């Protein structure tokens, strides 16, 4: 009888052996430059993210670039079934992955998969086009992207979306499929429009955003951005920013929208949100260079609310690149977020080589960072006046010298984050 510990070297890291490709043409099958690997695999293979029982394992998950038909292929030199004379079985990789996919949406036969590729040139985007924009990538190539709002009533779209959302299990932590039978979901999909080898235009799927339109009495809705996913080959091209701007614009035009919120953001999305809001406010009078250095004021909040009607206060939960929660009253940029935008744009206009200008900016931000600390001190003083023992409370607060050191670290982190946004604003 074979003992399983004898085959411990056949426990493989799924993140290393699983690979993805988006296939536009048959030549792409052998182009290793197109390979990208998952960020996580625990939602497929469990917390250990491991696959047992193979030597030289390669798991290939291929998608046709436009319609996203899926192929799953497994290659290996040997497996534990043979090495153990059948006493121990290797993990059934294809079945494990297939259990997480919509029924009938994948192929294990390459010839059948290639038949769908032959028809991919006929694939057209679903829905109504909302925007298009061009991007010059790192290789200097100009590329065209289009964003569409898609209708849940179209059954062909829902089948397509079922394939598209399979990516979240590999790239979004704690993600789950949305219920496509729920008619309150709204879908936004981005595609790249490109020329194939024959010079004809085709479309490749880039990513998607889902928005849940909550009902608000009596005849209103409160849209909440739920998922934002840009596929790895298209990241670092500003697609996420375009998604958010397009969704803002789409809902701003609807009179029945009260506010717009976001659910469980990642740090990446928080940075994206700050950039979008800062760019929206950059041209407002109350954020102009000559005004902003006088300090933060209520006029900034009022003008941002009335001009852009953007709600971007986001409740801090946990996961990665995508989710958001909290209700606000009025479709607006709330005071806390407005203050953050003010600090970004004031730094944008601050001359870092001018001691007085830069010093005034640092003091302004540090006063905001120190507000909670000083409030705690004032509360302790009030309690002491009332003859309440506060020794235990004071012990929990940092000493003045410790607080100065903490403040310097906090400020440095804030300024560094703001500078990254400013660099994008200047490009």
Automatic annotation (TrEMBL):
Gene source species: Ceratitis capitata
Family: Belongs to the HAT1 family.
GO molecular function, one term: histone binding
Family annotation (PANTHER family): HISTONE ACETYLTRANSFERASE TYPE B CATALYTIC SUBUNIT
Keywords assigned by UniProt, alphabetized: Acyltransferase, Membrane, Nucleus, Transferase, Transmembrane, Transmembrane helix
Principal localisation: nucleus
Presence of keyword Transferase: yes
Site keyed Interaction with histone H4 N-terminus: positions: 185
Annotated ranges, domain Histone acetyl transferase HAT1 N-terminal: 11-173
CC terms in the record's Gene Ontology section: chromosome, telomeric region; nucleus
One of the Pfam families matching this protein, by short name: Hat1_N
Binding site for acetyl-CoA: 235-241
Protein name listed in UniProt: Histone acetyltransferase type B catalytic subunit
Region (Interaction with histone H4 N-terminus): 47-49, 212-214
Active site, renumbered: 263 (proton donor/acceptor)
């Amino acid at each position: 009888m074979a003992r399983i510990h004898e085959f411990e070297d056949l426990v493989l890291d799924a993140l290393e052996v699983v690979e993805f490709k988006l296939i536009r043409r048959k030549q792409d099958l052998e182009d290793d430059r197109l390979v990208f690997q998952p960020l996580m695999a625990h939602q497929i293979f469990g917390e250990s993210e491991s696959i047992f029982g193979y030597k030289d394992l390669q798991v290939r998950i291929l998608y046709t670039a436009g319609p996203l038909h899926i192929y799953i292929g497994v290659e290996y030199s040997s497996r534990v079934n043979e090495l153990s004379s059948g006493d121990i079985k290797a993990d059934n990789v294809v079945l494990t992955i297939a259990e997480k996919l919509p029924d009938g949406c994948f192929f294990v036969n390459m010839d059948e998969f290639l038949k769908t590729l032959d028809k991919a040139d006929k694939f057209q985007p679903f829905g109504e086009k909302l925007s298009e924009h061009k991007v010059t990538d790192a290789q200097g190539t100009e590329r065209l992207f289009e964003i569409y709002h898609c209708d849940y009533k179209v059954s062909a779209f829902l089948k397509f979306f079922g394939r598209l959302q399979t990516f979240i299990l590999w790239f979004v932590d704690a993600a789950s499929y949305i219920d496509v039978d729920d008619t309150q979901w709204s879908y936004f999909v981005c595609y790249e429009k490109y020329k194939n080898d024959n010079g004809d235009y085709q479309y490749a799927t880039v990513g998607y955003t889902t928005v849940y339109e909550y009902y608000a009495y009596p005849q209103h809705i409160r849209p909440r951005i739920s998922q934002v996913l840009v596929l790895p080959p298209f990241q670092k091209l500003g697609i996420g920013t375009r998604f958010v701007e397009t969704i803002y614009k789409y809902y701003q035009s609807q009179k029945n929208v009260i506010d717009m919120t976001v659910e469980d953001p990642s740090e990446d999305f928080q940075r994206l949100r700050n950039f979008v809001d800062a760019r929206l406010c950059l041209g407002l009078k109350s954020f102009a260079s000559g005004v902003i250095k006088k300090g933060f004021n209520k006029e900034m909040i009022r003008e941002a609310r009335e001009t852009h009607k953007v709600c971007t206060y986001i409740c801090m939960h946990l996961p990665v690149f995508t989710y958001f929660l909290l209700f606000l009253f009025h479709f607006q940029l709330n005071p806390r977020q407005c203050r953050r935008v003010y600090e970004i744009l004031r730094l944008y206009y601050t001359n870092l080589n001018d001691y007085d200008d830069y010093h005034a900016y640092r003091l302004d931000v540090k006063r905001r960072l120190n507000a909670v600390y000083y409030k705690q001190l004032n509360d302790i003083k009030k309690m002491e006046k009332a003859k309440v023992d506060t020794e235990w409370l004071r012990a929990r607060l940092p000493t003045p010298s410790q607080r100065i050191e903490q403040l310097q670290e906090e400020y440095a982190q804030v300024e560094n984050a703001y500078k990254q946004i400013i660099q994008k604003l200047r490009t």
